[in-house]
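Annotated sample (chain length 184).
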Amino acid sequence: MQTLCAASSTAPQAGADSPHPATEYLRCCVGGAQFGIDVDCVQELRSYEPPAPIANAPPGIKGVLNLRGVIVPIVDLCLKLRGHVAECTTATVLVVLKVRGRAIGVMVDSVSEVQELAAHAQYEAAPGQPGCAAPFITGVANLAGNSVGLVDIDALLAGADMGLVGPAAATLHGAAGGPISQGV
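Output written by the structure step:
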């Protein structure tokens, strides 16, 4: 696996003032790099299904899926984090996330496990480091000898550029022909 970002030389101190409290992360591979997604955001994992394309969707939105009557936009996480389009394989997984009350799916190359990560094991991401998708990476951890970028899902998917939540979602609402993920 490719190293995502160099960790800073000192780990944050554990405690209430720590910017990274202990939490569990879903570890996944995206574009040859490993990332961690806070499991509190994860709603479900699904095998990959090609989404229905939608007209005038922002870059990175592959289309939508109807999951139990809810229209869920599908985001190419590789494009957002690594800068190139994901290659779909039999190992490709859709991770359905809950972002500000909305279900949003992200494509990842694979998922490996859920790991608890203590505050003292998390490091600040080195600013300006090549391969870091700042401001979406809140930190870096070393898990089983691999650097894992800790993704801020809210910052990544709730931005105005994506148009998935808030007033900007009205654009996709009309394009998809129905409400975008009122909850699953």
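Annotation: The two ends are 33 Å apart (CA to CA).
Annotation: Residues 169-176 form the longest helix (8 residues).
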